[in-house]
Target: aldehyde oxygenase (deformylating)
Amino acid sequence: MATRPGPLTEWPWQRLGNFKYVVMAPVVVHGARLVSAGGWGAIDLAFALILPSLLLRMIHNQIWISAARYQTARSKHRIVDRGIEFEQVDRERGWDDQIILNGLLFYVGYLLIPSARHLPAWRTDGAVATALLHAGPVEFLYYWFHRALHHHFLYSRYHSHHHSSIVTEPITSVIHPFAEHIVYYVLFAIPMLSTIYMGNASVLGFVVYIAYIDFMNNMGHCNFELVPKWMFRVFPPLKYLMYTPSFHSLHHTQFRTNYSLFMPFYDYIYSTMDKSSDQLYESSLKGTEETPDLVHLTHMTNLQSAYHLRIGFASIASKPSDSSMWYMWTLWPLAWLSMVFAWVYGSSAFVVERIKLKKLKMQTWAVPRYNFQYGLNWERESINDLIEKAILDADARGVKVLSLGLLNQAKQLNGGGELFRQKYPKLRVRLVDGSGLATAVVLKSIPQDAKQVFLHAGPSKIASATAFALCEKGVKVIMNPKKEYDMLESQNADSRASYLKLSGNQMPQIWLVDNIDDKEQKMAPQGTTFIPISQFPIKKIRKDCTYLSTPAMKIPETVQNIHACENWLPRKVMSAWRIAGILHALEGWTMHECGDAMIDSEKAWSAAIRHGFVPLNKA
Model:
Protein backbone atom coordinates (compact mmCIF):
# COMPACT_ATOMS: atom_id res chain seq x y z
CA MET A 1 0.00 0.00 0.00
CA ALA A 2 1.21 3.53 -0.76
CA THR A 3 2.30 5.70 2.15
CA ARG A 4 -0.83 7.89 1.75
CA PRO A 5 -3.23 5.86 -0.44
CA GLY A 6 -5.13 7.96 -2.97
CA PRO A 7 -8.50 7.37 -4.67
CA LEU A 8 -8.86 4.15 -6.70
CA THR A 9 -5.95 2.49 -4.93
CA GLU A 10 -7.81 -0.75 -4.19
CA TRP A 11 -8.82 -3.12 -6.95
CA PRO A 12 -12.62 -3.38 -7.35
CA TRP A 13 -12.57 -7.13 -6.60
CA GLN A 14 -10.04 -6.99 -3.76
CA ARG A 15 -12.58 -8.03 -1.13
CA LEU A 16 -13.41 -11.18 -3.10
CA GLY A 17 -10.02 -12.67 -2.25
CA ASN A 18 -9.31 -15.89 -4.13
CA PHE A 19 -12.82 -15.81 -5.59
CA LYS A 20 -12.01 -12.72 -7.66
CA TYR A 21 -12.12 -14.71 -10.88
CA VAL A 22 -15.91 -14.70 -10.71
CA VAL A 23 -15.73 -11.26 -12.35
CA MET A 24 -14.88 -13.13 -15.57
CA ALA A 25 -18.22 -14.98 -15.38
CA PRO A 26 -19.89 -12.73 -18.03
CA VAL A 27 -17.27 -13.83 -20.57
CA VAL A 28 -17.93 -17.50 -19.78
CA VAL A 29 -21.72 -17.07 -19.91
CA HIS A 30 -21.49 -15.13 -23.18
CA GLY A 31 -19.35 -17.86 -24.72
CA ALA A 32 -21.71 -20.59 -23.51
CA ARG A 33 -24.68 -18.78 -25.10
CA LEU A 34 -22.87 -18.47 -28.42
CA VAL A 35 -21.98 -22.16 -28.44
CA SER A 36 -25.49 -23.28 -27.47
CA ALA A 37 -27.05 -21.07 -30.15
CA GLY A 38 -24.78 -21.72 -33.12
CA GLY A 39 -22.13 -24.26 -32.13
CA TRP A 40 -18.41 -23.71 -31.78
CA GLY A 41 -18.27 -22.17 -35.23
CA ALA A 42 -20.28 -19.20 -33.97
CA ILE A 43 -17.42 -18.03 -31.75
CA ASP A 44 -15.22 -15.34 -33.26
CA LEU A 45 -11.44 -15.89 -32.99
CA ALA A 46 -10.98 -12.60 -31.11
CA PHE A 47 -13.55 -13.64 -28.51
CA ALA A 48 -12.30 -17.24 -28.34
CA LEU A 49 -8.79 -16.15 -27.36
CA ILE A 50 -9.77 -13.88 -24.44
CA LEU A 51 -9.71 -16.54 -21.73
CA PRO A 52 -6.90 -18.74 -23.18
CA SER A 53 -4.68 -15.67 -23.54
CA LEU A 54 -5.17 -14.89 -19.84
CA LEU A 55 -4.11 -18.43 -18.91
CA LEU A 56 -1.05 -18.20 -21.16
CA ARG A 57 -0.09 -14.90 -19.51
CA MET A 58 -0.28 -16.50 -16.07
CA ILE A 59 1.89 -19.41 -17.20
CA HIS A 60 4.34 -17.00 -18.80
CA ASN A 61 4.60 -14.95 -15.60
CA GLN A 62 4.96 -18.03 -13.40
CA ILE A 63 7.83 -19.31 -15.54
CA TRP A 64 9.60 -15.99 -15.01
CA ILE A 65 8.93 -16.09 -11.25
CA SER A 66 10.37 -19.60 -10.86
CA ALA A 67 13.34 -18.93 -13.16
CA ALA A 68 14.21 -15.68 -11.38
CA ARG A 69 13.99 -17.21 -7.91
CA TYR A 70 16.14 -20.15 -9.02
CA GLN A 71 18.73 -17.86 -10.59
CA THR A 72 18.91 -15.42 -7.69
CA ALA A 73 19.46 -18.37 -5.32
CA ARG A 74 22.36 -19.84 -7.29
CA SER A 75 23.55 -17.39 -9.94
CA LYS A 76 26.56 -15.11 -9.67
CA HIS A 77 24.76 -12.53 -11.83
CA ARG A 78 22.55 -11.10 -9.08
CA ILE A 79 22.17 -7.34 -9.32
CA VAL A 80 20.96 -6.25 -5.88
CA ASP A 81 22.38 -8.55 -3.22
CA ARG A 82 19.73 -7.99 -0.58
CA GLY A 83 16.94 -10.12 0.82
CA ILE A 84 13.21 -10.35 0.18
CA GLU A 85 10.89 -10.60 3.16
CA PHE A 86 7.38 -11.93 3.74
CA GLU A 87 5.97 -8.40 3.62
CA GLN A 88 6.98 -8.08 -0.04
CA VAL A 89 5.53 -11.48 -0.93
CA ASP A 90 2.21 -10.51 0.67
CA ARG A 91 2.22 -7.15 -1.08
CA GLU A 92 2.84 -8.78 -4.46
CA ARG A 93 0.32 -11.59 -3.99
CA GLY A 94 -2.17 -9.93 -6.34
CA TRP A 95 0.03 -9.95 -9.45
CA ASP A 96 -2.78 -11.55 -11.45
CA ASP A 97 -5.15 -8.61 -10.86
CA GLN A 98 -3.86 -6.83 -13.93
CA ILE A 99 -4.42 -9.98 -16.01
CA ILE A 100 -8.06 -10.06 -14.93
CA LEU A 101 -8.37 -6.36 -15.78
CA ASN A 102 -6.83 -7.02 -19.19
CA GLY A 103 -9.39 -9.74 -19.87
CA LEU A 104 -12.30 -7.53 -18.85
CA LEU A 105 -11.06 -4.64 -21.01
CA PHE A 106 -10.68 -6.94 -24.02
CA TYR A 107 -14.20 -8.21 -23.48
CA VAL A 108 -15.67 -4.70 -23.14
CA GLY A 109 -13.75 -3.62 -26.24
CA TYR A 110 -15.08 -6.60 -28.16
CA LEU A 111 -18.66 -5.66 -27.20
CA LEU A 112 -18.39 -1.91 -27.82
CA ILE A 113 -16.19 -1.77 -30.93
CA PRO A 114 -17.82 -3.56 -33.90
CA SER A 115 -14.63 -3.35 -35.97
CA ALA A 116 -12.80 -5.34 -33.27
CA ARG A 117 -14.83 -8.41 -34.21
CA HIS A 118 -13.96 -10.87 -36.96
CA LEU A 119 -10.35 -9.71 -37.09
CA PRO A 120 -7.89 -11.73 -39.19
CA ALA A 121 -5.44 -13.98 -37.40
CA TRP A 122 -2.38 -11.97 -38.50
CA ARG A 123 -1.47 -8.76 -40.35
CA THR A 124 2.20 -7.95 -40.81
CA ASP A 125 1.53 -4.28 -41.58
CA GLY A 126 -0.50 -4.07 -38.37
CA ALA A 127 2.37 -5.58 -36.36
CA VAL A 128 4.81 -3.03 -37.83
CA ALA A 129 2.38 -0.20 -37.01
CA THR A 130 2.04 -1.50 -33.45
CA ALA A 131 5.83 -1.53 -32.99
CA LEU A 132 6.17 2.03 -34.29
CA LEU A 133 3.29 3.32 -32.20
CA HIS A 134 4.77 1.71 -29.11
CA ALA A 135 8.24 3.17 -29.71
CA GLY A 136 6.73 6.58 -30.38
CA PRO A 137 3.72 7.77 -28.38
CA VAL A 138 3.54 4.93 -25.83
CA GLU A 139 7.17 5.15 -24.71
CA PHE A 140 7.13 8.96 -24.79
CA LEU A 141 3.90 9.35 -22.81
CA TYR A 142 4.93 6.64 -20.33
CA TYR A 143 8.27 8.36 -19.71
CA TRP A 144 6.61 11.63 -18.71
CA PHE A 145 3.82 9.95 -16.78
CA HIS A 146 6.44 7.97 -14.87
CA ARG A 147 8.34 11.15 -14.04
CA ALA A 148 5.09 12.69 -12.83
CA LEU A 149 4.50 9.66 -10.59
CA HIS A 150 7.77 10.50 -8.84
CA HIS A 151 6.46 13.91 -7.82
CA HIS A 152 5.88 13.70 -4.07
CA PHE A 153 2.08 14.20 -4.44
CA LEU A 154 1.53 11.21 -6.75
CA TYR A 155 4.42 9.20 -5.36
CA SER A 156 3.08 9.18 -1.81
CA ARG A 157 -0.45 8.33 -2.96
CA TYR A 158 0.27 5.76 -5.66
CA HIS A 159 3.74 4.94 -6.95
CA SER A 160 5.39 4.38 -3.57
CA HIS A 161 3.47 1.11 -3.43
CA HIS A 162 5.51 -0.20 -6.37
CA HIS A 163 8.80 1.18 -5.02
CA SER A 164 8.32 -0.52 -1.66
CA SER A 165 10.18 -3.39 -3.35
CA ILE A 166 13.84 -2.40 -3.51
CA VAL A 167 14.84 -5.93 -4.50
CA THR A 168 12.57 -6.71 -7.43
CA GLU A 169 11.08 -9.94 -8.67
CA PRO A 170 9.41 -10.38 -12.08
CA ILE A 171 5.94 -9.87 -10.59
CA THR A 172 7.04 -6.62 -8.96
CA SER A 173 6.61 -5.12 -12.43
CA VAL A 174 2.80 -5.24 -12.22
CA ILE A 175 2.31 -4.37 -8.55
CA HIS A 176 0.66 -0.97 -8.80
CA PRO A 177 -2.54 0.59 -7.45
CA PHE A 178 -5.64 0.16 -9.60
CA ALA A 179 -5.56 3.80 -10.75
CA GLU A 180 -2.04 3.42 -12.14
CA HIS A 181 -3.00 0.35 -14.12
CA ILE A 182 -5.91 2.20 -15.69
CA VAL A 183 -3.47 4.79 -17.06
CA TYR A 184 -1.06 2.09 -18.25
CA TYR A 185 -3.80 0.29 -20.17
CA VAL A 186 -4.87 3.57 -21.75
CA LEU A 187 -1.29 3.92 -23.01
CA PHE A 188 -1.04 0.32 -24.18
CA ALA A 189 -4.40 0.69 -25.94
CA ILE A 190 -2.96 3.34 -28.29
CA PRO A 191 -1.36 0.85 -30.73
CA MET A 192 -4.29 -1.56 -30.53
CA LEU A 193 -7.05 1.01 -31.06
CA SER A 194 -5.01 2.75 -33.76
CA THR A 195 -4.58 -0.44 -35.78
CA ILE A 196 -8.30 -1.17 -35.42
CA TYR A 197 -9.04 2.33 -36.73
CA MET A 198 -6.53 1.91 -39.60
CA GLY A 199 -8.02 -1.49 -40.48
CA ASN A 200 -4.83 -3.54 -40.12
CA ALA A 201 -5.40 -5.01 -36.65
CA SER A 202 -5.12 -8.74 -36.03
CA VAL A 203 -5.85 -11.11 -33.18
CA LEU A 204 -2.30 -12.45 -32.94
CA GLY A 205 -0.98 -8.90 -33.23
CA PHE A 206 -2.75 -8.05 -29.97
CA VAL A 207 -1.61 -11.28 -28.29
CA VAL A 208 2.01 -10.78 -29.34
CA TYR A 209 1.99 -7.16 -28.18
CA ILE A 210 0.70 -8.08 -24.71
CA ALA A 211 3.24 -10.95 -24.58
CA TYR A 212 5.99 -8.44 -25.44
CA ILE A 213 4.87 -6.17 -22.58
CA ASP A 214 4.85 -9.11 -20.16
CA PHE A 215 8.25 -10.34 -21.33
CA MET A 216 9.93 -6.97 -20.99
CA ASN A 217 8.25 -6.23 -17.66
CA ASN A 218 9.35 -9.56 -16.20
CA MET A 219 12.87 -9.35 -17.59
CA GLY A 220 13.40 -5.82 -16.30
CA HIS A 221 12.49 -6.81 -12.73
CA CYS A 222 14.12 -10.26 -12.47
CA ASN A 223 17.17 -9.03 -10.45
CA PHE A 224 19.76 -11.01 -12.41
CA GLU A 225 21.52 -9.91 -15.55
CA LEU A 226 20.82 -12.15 -18.52
CA VAL A 227 21.13 -9.94 -21.63
CA PRO A 228 24.36 -11.04 -23.37
CA LYS A 229 26.90 -8.42 -24.41
CA TRP A 230 27.17 -9.76 -27.97
CA MET A 231 23.68 -8.47 -28.75
CA PHE A 232 24.87 -4.89 -28.27
CA ARG A 233 28.07 -5.55 -30.24
CA VAL A 234 26.15 -6.93 -33.20
CA PHE A 235 23.60 -4.10 -33.16
CA PRO A 236 24.88 -1.08 -31.15
CA PRO A 237 21.62 0.97 -31.43
CA LEU A 238 19.93 -1.78 -29.41
CA LYS A 239 21.05 -0.07 -26.18
CA TYR A 240 18.55 2.68 -26.97
CA LEU A 241 15.73 0.27 -27.88
CA MET A 242 15.89 -2.33 -25.09
CA TYR A 243 16.68 -1.93 -21.43
CA THR A 244 18.37 -4.55 -19.28
CA PRO A 245 17.52 -5.83 -15.77
CA SER A 246 20.46 -3.90 -14.32
CA PHE A 247 19.32 -0.69 -16.08
CA HIS A 248 15.87 -0.81 -14.47
CA SER A 249 17.23 -2.06 -11.15
CA LEU A 250 18.96 1.31 -10.76
CA HIS A 251 15.57 2.98 -10.96
CA HIS A 252 14.46 0.98 -7.90
CA THR A 253 17.61 1.78 -5.93
CA GLN A 254 18.20 5.40 -7.06
CA PHE A 255 14.54 6.42 -7.72
CA ARG A 256 15.34 9.53 -9.81
CA THR A 257 16.95 7.94 -12.88
CA ASN A 258 16.15 5.46 -15.67
CA TYR A 259 12.43 6.29 -16.04
CA SER A 260 11.91 4.68 -19.47
CA LEU A 261 9.39 1.89 -20.00
CA PHE A 262 11.39 -0.57 -22.13
CA MET A 263 13.33 1.69 -24.50
CA PRO A 264 15.97 3.85 -22.78
CA PHE A 265 16.38 6.45 -25.54
CA TYR A 266 14.14 8.96 -23.75
CA ASP A 267 16.42 8.75 -20.71
CA TYR A 268 19.32 9.58 -23.03
CA ILE A 269 17.39 12.44 -24.65
CA TYR A 270 16.31 14.04 -21.37
CA SER A 271 19.54 13.26 -19.46
CA THR A 272 17.92 11.04 -16.81
CA MET A 273 19.99 7.94 -17.48
CA ASP A 274 21.94 6.85 -14.44
CA LYS A 275 25.64 7.30 -15.08
CA SER A 276 26.45 3.96 -13.50
CA SER A 277 24.12 1.98 -15.83
CA ASP A 278 26.88 0.61 -18.07
CA GLN A 279 29.17 -0.15 -15.13
CA LEU A 280 26.45 -2.05 -13.27
CA TYR A 281 25.58 -3.98 -16.42
CA GLU A 282 29.22 -5.03 -16.88
CA SER A 283 29.72 -6.00 -13.23
CA SER A 284 26.41 -7.89 -13.02
CA LEU A 285 27.12 -9.77 -16.23
CA LYS A 286 30.58 -10.72 -15.01
CA GLY A 287 29.28 -11.61 -11.56
CA THR A 288 31.10 -12.82 -8.48
CA GLU A 289 31.35 -16.46 -7.53
CA GLU A 290 29.97 -17.11 -4.05
CA THR A 291 30.63 -20.17 -1.93
CA PRO A 292 28.13 -20.80 0.86
CA ASP A 293 29.42 -21.56 4.33
CA LEU A 294 26.54 -23.92 4.98
CA VAL A 295 24.25 -26.12 2.89
CA HIS A 296 21.04 -27.63 4.20
CA LEU A 297 20.13 -30.70 2.15
CA THR A 298 16.40 -31.39 2.08
CA HIS A 299 13.97 -33.05 -0.33
CA MET A 300 10.37 -32.83 -1.48
CA THR A 301 7.80 -34.35 0.86
CA ASN A 302 4.35 -34.92 -0.67
CA LEU A 303 3.26 -34.17 -4.24
CA GLN A 304 2.16 -30.66 -3.36
CA SER A 305 5.60 -29.75 -2.04
CA ALA A 306 6.89 -29.24 -5.59
CA TYR A 307 5.05 -25.94 -5.87
CA HIS A 308 5.49 -25.16 -2.17
CA LEU A 309 9.23 -24.76 -2.72
CA ARG A 310 10.51 -21.19 -2.84
CA ILE A 311 11.01 -21.52 -6.60
CA GLY A 312 7.43 -22.71 -7.00
CA PHE A 313 4.40 -20.51 -6.33
CA ALA A 314 5.48 -17.53 -4.24
CA SER A 315 2.18 -17.05 -2.38
CA ILE A 316 1.90 -20.78 -1.59
CA ALA A 317 5.51 -21.07 -0.45
CA SER A 318 4.98 -18.17 1.97
CA LYS A 319 2.49 -20.24 3.97
CA PRO A 320 2.95 -23.50 5.91
CA SER A 321 2.45 -26.49 3.63
CA ASP A 322 -0.46 -27.76 5.72
CA SER A 323 -2.46 -24.57 5.06
CA SER A 324 -5.64 -25.58 3.27
CA MET A 325 -6.51 -23.62 0.12
CA TRP A 326 -9.56 -24.56 -1.90
CA TYR A 327 -7.85 -24.17 -5.28
CA MET A 328 -4.97 -26.54 -4.50
CA TRP A 329 -6.81 -29.51 -6.01
CA THR A 330 -6.60 -27.86 -9.43
CA LEU A 331 -2.81 -28.17 -9.29
CA TRP A 332 -2.75 -31.95 -8.86
CA PRO A 333 -1.98 -32.63 -12.56
CA LEU A 334 0.98 -30.27 -12.32
CA ALA A 335 2.10 -31.97 -9.10
CA TRP A 336 2.08 -35.40 -10.73
CA LEU A 337 3.90 -34.08 -13.78
CA SER A 338 6.55 -32.48 -11.56
CA MET A 339 7.06 -35.72 -9.65
CA VAL A 340 7.50 -37.79 -12.82
CA PHE A 341 9.85 -35.19 -14.32
CA ALA A 342 11.97 -35.09 -11.14
CA TRP A 343 12.07 -38.89 -10.93
CA VAL A 344 13.17 -39.32 -14.54
CA TYR A 345 15.44 -36.32 -15.04
CA GLY A 346 16.46 -35.35 -11.49
CA SER A 347 20.11 -36.36 -11.47
CA SER A 348 21.41 -33.99 -8.79
CA ALA A 349 20.29 -31.75 -5.94
CA PHE A 350 19.28 -28.24 -6.94
CA VAL A 351 19.46 -24.89 -5.15
CA VAL A 352 16.13 -23.58 -3.85
CA GLU A 353 17.07 -20.89 -1.33
CA ARG A 354 19.87 -18.54 -0.29
CA ILE A 355 19.85 -16.80 3.10
CA LYS A 356 22.25 -14.88 5.32
CA LEU A 357 22.80 -14.56 9.04
CA LYS A 358 25.35 -11.85 9.76
CA LYS A 359 28.33 -12.91 7.61
CA LEU A 360 27.21 -16.54 7.33
CA LYS A 361 26.06 -17.46 3.81
CA MET A 362 23.65 -20.39 3.56
CA GLN A 363 21.93 -22.28 0.78
CA THR A 364 19.22 -24.90 0.77
CA TRP A 365 19.58 -27.71 -1.75
CA ALA A 366 16.80 -30.17 -2.54
CA VAL A 367 17.20 -33.79 -3.59
CA PRO A 368 14.64 -34.33 -6.40
CA ARG A 369 12.86 -37.15 -4.60
CA TYR A 370 9.68 -37.44 -2.50
CA ASN A 371 8.85 -39.08 0.83
CA PHE A 372 7.30 -42.18 -0.70
CA GLN A 373 10.44 -42.83 -2.78
CA TYR A 374 12.58 -42.99 0.36
CA GLY A 375 10.44 -45.94 1.46
CA LEU A 376 11.12 -47.94 -1.70
CA ASN A 377 13.95 -50.43 -1.13
CA TRP A 378 14.99 -50.36 -4.77
CA GLU A 379 15.31 -46.55 -4.69
CA ARG A 380 17.63 -46.33 -1.69
CA GLU A 381 20.86 -46.78 -3.64
CA SER A 382 19.99 -44.07 -6.17
CA ILE A 383 18.90 -41.68 -3.39
CA ASN A 384 22.14 -42.27 -1.51
CA ASP A 385 23.98 -41.57 -4.75
CA LEU A 386 22.20 -38.21 -5.01
CA ILE A 387 23.04 -37.36 -1.38
CA GLU A 388 26.65 -38.46 -1.87
CA LYS A 389 26.93 -36.35 -5.00
CA ALA A 390 25.65 -33.29 -3.11
CA ILE A 391 28.09 -33.88 -0.24
CA LEU A 392 31.07 -34.22 -2.60
CA ASP A 393 29.97 -31.14 -4.55
CA ALA A 394 29.73 -29.13 -1.33
CA ASP A 395 33.12 -30.42 -0.20
CA ALA A 396 34.74 -29.49 -3.52
CA ARG A 397 33.28 -25.97 -3.34
CA GLY A 398 34.66 -25.36 0.14
CA VAL A 399 31.37 -25.54 2.06
CA LYS A 400 32.09 -25.85 5.78
CA VAL A 401 28.92 -27.61 7.01
CA LEU A 402 26.22 -29.70 5.37
CA SER A 403 23.14 -30.50 7.44
CA LEU A 404 21.00 -33.48 6.46
CA GLY A 405 17.30 -32.66 6.52
CA LEU A 406 14.24 -34.90 6.70
CA LEU A 407 14.81 -38.44 5.39
CA ASN A 408 18.26 -37.69 3.99
CA GLN A 409 19.55 -38.70 7.44
CA ALA A 410 17.35 -41.79 7.87
CA LYS A 411 19.17 -44.53 9.76
CA GLN A 412 17.90 -47.29 7.47
CA LEU A 413 19.05 -45.28 4.44
CA ASN A 414 22.62 -44.29 5.31
CA GLY A 415 22.99 -44.69 9.08
CA GLY A 416 22.25 -41.04 9.75
CA GLY A 417 25.02 -39.94 7.37
CA GLU A 418 27.62 -42.29 8.85
CA LEU A 419 27.85 -44.14 5.52
CA PHE A 420 29.41 -41.09 3.85
CA ARG A 421 31.71 -40.24 6.75
CA GLN A 422 33.21 -43.71 6.68
CA LYS A 423 33.39 -43.81 2.89
CA TYR A 424 35.18 -40.45 2.75
CA PRO A 425 37.24 -40.11 5.96
CA LYS A 426 39.02 -37.00 4.60
CA LEU A 427 35.84 -34.97 4.10
CA ARG A 428 36.41 -31.32 4.93
CA VAL A 429 32.71 -30.48 5.00
CA ARG A 430 31.16 -31.43 8.34
CA LEU A 431 28.02 -33.56 8.21
CA VAL A 432 25.34 -32.68 10.75
CA ASP A 433 22.13 -34.55 11.54
CA GLY A 434 21.06 -32.05 14.22
CA SER A 435 20.15 -34.67 16.81
CA GLY A 436 21.75 -32.78 19.70
CA LEU A 437 19.70 -29.60 19.28
CA ALA A 438 16.55 -31.57 18.39
CA THR A 439 16.90 -33.47 21.68
CA ALA A 440 17.35 -30.20 23.55
CA VAL A 441 14.22 -28.68 21.97
CA VAL A 442 12.19 -31.77 22.91
CA LEU A 443 13.44 -31.67 26.50
CA LYS A 444 12.68 -27.95 26.82
CA SER A 445 9.14 -28.58 25.53
CA ILE A 446 8.34 -30.90 28.44
CA PRO A 447 6.83 -29.11 31.48
CA GLN A 448 9.42 -28.71 34.23
CA ASP A 449 7.10 -30.21 36.83
CA ALA A 450 6.46 -33.37 34.79
CA LYS A 451 6.90 -36.55 36.84
CA GLN A 452 6.38 -39.06 34.05
CA VAL A 453 6.12 -39.20 30.25
CA PHE A 454 5.09 -41.82 27.73
CA LEU A 455 7.68 -42.48 25.00
CA HIS A 456 6.04 -43.82 21.87
CA ALA A 457 8.95 -44.01 19.44
CA GLY A 458 11.07 -46.39 17.48
CA PRO A 459 14.82 -46.72 17.98
CA SER A 460 16.49 -43.38 17.26
CA LYS A 461 19.25 -41.16 18.64
CA ILE A 462 16.78 -38.54 19.78
CA ALA A 463 14.47 -41.03 21.50
CA SER A 464 17.38 -42.60 23.36
CA ALA A 465 19.00 -39.29 24.32
CA THR A 466 15.67 -37.87 25.47
CA ALA A 467 14.85 -40.93 27.56
CA PHE A 468 18.27 -40.99 29.24
CA ALA A 469 18.17 -37.25 29.97
CA LEU A 470 14.70 -37.56 31.55
CA CYS A 471 15.75 -40.52 33.65
CA GLU A 472 18.79 -38.55 34.80
CA LYS A 473 16.43 -35.77 35.99
CA GLY A 474 14.27 -38.26 37.86
CA VAL A 475 11.37 -38.25 35.39
CA LYS A 476 9.76 -41.64 34.87
CA VAL A 477 9.80 -42.74 31.21
CA ILE A 478 7.13 -45.29 30.30
CA MET A 479 7.60 -47.20 27.07
CA ASN A 480 5.80 -49.55 24.73
CA PRO A 481 6.50 -51.90 22.93
CA LYS A 482 8.84 -54.17 24.86
CA LYS A 483 11.43 -54.40 22.08
CA GLU A 484 12.36 -50.73 22.30
CA TYR A 485 12.14 -50.87 26.11
CA ASP A 486 14.61 -53.76 26.31
CA MET A 487 17.04 -51.99 23.99
CA LEU A 488 17.04 -48.78 26.03
CA GLU A 489 17.16 -50.65 29.33
CA SER A 490 20.34 -52.41 28.25
CA GLN A 491 21.97 -49.01 27.52
CA ASN A 492 20.62 -47.19 30.57
CA ALA A 493 22.92 -46.65 33.56
CA ASP A 494 22.09 -48.56 36.73
CA SER A 495 21.63 -45.33 38.67
CA ARG A 496 18.68 -44.34 36.53
CA ALA A 497 17.32 -47.78 35.59
CA SER A 498 14.39 -47.46 37.99
CA TYR A 499 13.00 -44.51 36.01
CA LEU A 500 12.58 -46.50 32.78
CA LYS A 501 9.35 -48.48 32.89
CA LEU A 502 7.40 -50.76 30.60
CA SER A 503 3.86 -49.57 29.86
CA GLY A 504 1.47 -50.03 32.76
CA ASN A 505 -2.20 -49.39 33.47
CA GLN A 506 -1.86 -45.67 34.11
CA MET A 507 -0.92 -43.52 31.14
CA PRO A 508 0.81 -40.12 31.55
CA GLN A 509 -0.61 -37.04 29.85
CA ILE A 510 2.67 -36.18 28.11
CA TRP A 511 3.40 -38.30 25.06
CA LEU A 512 6.68 -38.13 23.15
CA VAL A 513 5.98 -39.58 19.71
CA ASP A 514 7.65 -39.96 16.34
CA ASN A 515 5.09 -41.89 14.31
CA ILE A 516 1.66 -42.65 15.70
CA ASP A 517 -1.53 -43.79 13.99
CA ASP A 518 -5.12 -42.77 14.74
CA LYS A 519 -5.88 -45.87 16.81
CA GLU A 520 -2.88 -45.30 19.07
CA GLN A 521 -3.76 -41.63 19.51
CA LYS A 522 -7.22 -42.56 20.76
CA MET A 523 -5.59 -44.55 23.58
CA ALA A 524 -4.16 -41.38 25.09
CA PRO A 525 -6.03 -39.96 28.09
CA GLN A 526 -8.03 -36.76 27.77
CA GLY A 527 -5.87 -33.63 27.94
CA THR A 528 -2.75 -35.35 26.63
CA THR A 529 0.02 -33.19 25.18
CA PHE A 530 1.63 -34.77 22.12
CA ILE A 531 5.26 -33.71 21.63
CA PRO A 532 6.79 -34.85 18.33
CA ILE A 533 10.41 -35.98 18.39
CA SER A 534 10.73 -36.49 14.63
CA GLN A 535 10.87 -34.03 11.74
CA PHE A 536 7.36 -34.87 10.55
CA PRO A 537 4.21 -33.50 12.21
CA ILE A 538 1.50 -35.60 13.86
CA LYS A 539 -1.94 -35.87 12.33
CA LYS A 540 -4.27 -33.98 14.67
CA ILE A 541 -7.39 -36.06 15.32
CA ARG A 542 -8.10 -35.24 18.98
CA LYS A 543 -9.79 -31.96 19.91
CA ASP A 544 -9.35 -32.69 23.61
CA CYS A 545 -5.56 -32.92 23.33
CA THR A 546 -2.72 -30.49 22.67
CA TYR A 547 -0.35 -30.93 19.73
CA LEU A 548 3.02 -29.21 19.84
CA SER A 549 5.12 -28.39 16.81
CA THR A 550 7.91 -30.59 15.55
CA PRO A 551 11.23 -29.56 17.17
CA ALA A 552 11.83 -26.03 15.89
CA MET A 553 12.78 -22.52 16.98
CA LYS A 554 12.05 -18.96 15.87
CA ILE A 555 14.88 -17.43 13.90
CA PRO A 556 16.66 -14.16 14.77
CA GLU A 557 15.44 -10.98 13.07
CA THR A 558 18.90 -10.62 11.53
CA VAL A 559 18.34 -13.59 9.19
CA GLN A 560 17.93 -12.16 5.68
CA ASN A 561 16.00 -13.34 2.62
CA ILE A 562 13.49 -15.49 4.48
CA HIS A 563 10.22 -15.37 2.54
CA ALA A 564 9.18 -19.02 2.33
CA CYS A 565 8.02 -21.38 5.06
CA GLU A 566 9.99 -24.51 5.85
CA ASN A 567 7.47 -27.21 5.01
CA TRP A 568 4.68 -27.17 7.68
CA LEU A 569 6.38 -24.74 10.05
CA PRO A 570 5.08 -21.18 10.56
CA ARG A 571 6.77 -18.12 9.13
CA LYS A 572 10.28 -17.32 10.39
CA VAL A 573 10.57 -20.67 12.15
CA MET A 574 13.23 -23.30 11.36
CA SER A 575 13.47 -26.93 12.27
CA ALA A 576 16.00 -27.82 14.95
CA TRP A 577 17.88 -30.02 12.48
CA ARG A 578 18.42 -27.08 10.14
CA ILE A 579 19.37 -24.71 12.94
CA ALA A 580 21.91 -27.26 14.19
CA GLY A 581 23.84 -26.88 10.94
CA ILE A 582 23.82 -23.09 11.35
CA LEU A 583 25.17 -23.42 14.91
CA HIS A 584 27.85 -25.82 13.72
CA ALA A 585 29.06 -23.19 11.24
CA LEU A 586 28.73 -20.21 13.61
CA GLU A 587 30.52 -21.96 16.47
CA GLY A 588 33.17 -23.53 14.27
CA TRP A 589 32.60 -27.01 15.68
CA THR A 590 34.88 -29.48 13.93
CA MET A 591 33.19 -32.80 14.69
CA HIS A 592 30.75 -34.63 12.44
CA GLU A 593 27.35 -35.06 14.09
CA CYS A 594 26.16 -38.17 12.31
CA GLY A 595 25.88 -41.88 12.98
CA ASP A 596 26.19 -42.37 16.75
CA ALA A 597 28.04 -39.08 17.29
CA MET A 598 25.98 -36.34 18.89
CA ILE A 599 26.61 -32.81 20.15
CA ASP A 600 25.76 -32.36 23.83
CA SER A 601 22.16 -31.16 23.92
CA GLU A 602 22.80 -28.47 26.55
CA LYS A 603 25.77 -27.18 24.57
CA ALA A 604 23.64 -26.98 21.42
CA TRP A 605 20.77 -25.28 23.28
CA SER A 606 23.05 -22.67 24.86
CA ALA A 607 24.57 -21.87 21.47
CA ALA A 608 21.12 -21.49 19.89
CA ILE A 609 19.94 -19.06 22.57
CA ARG A 610 23.20 -17.13 22.39
CA HIS A 611 22.81 -16.62 18.65
CA GLY A 612 19.27 -15.29 18.96
CA PHE A 613 17.10 -18.35 18.28
CA VAL A 614 13.95 -18.38 20.38
CA PRO A 615 12.04 -21.43 21.72
CA LEU A 616 8.82 -22.15 19.86
CA ASN A 617 7.33 -24.60 22.35
CA LYS A 618 7.76 -23.24 25.86
CA ALA A 619 7.53 -25.65 28.76
About this structure: The first helix runs from residue 25 to 38.
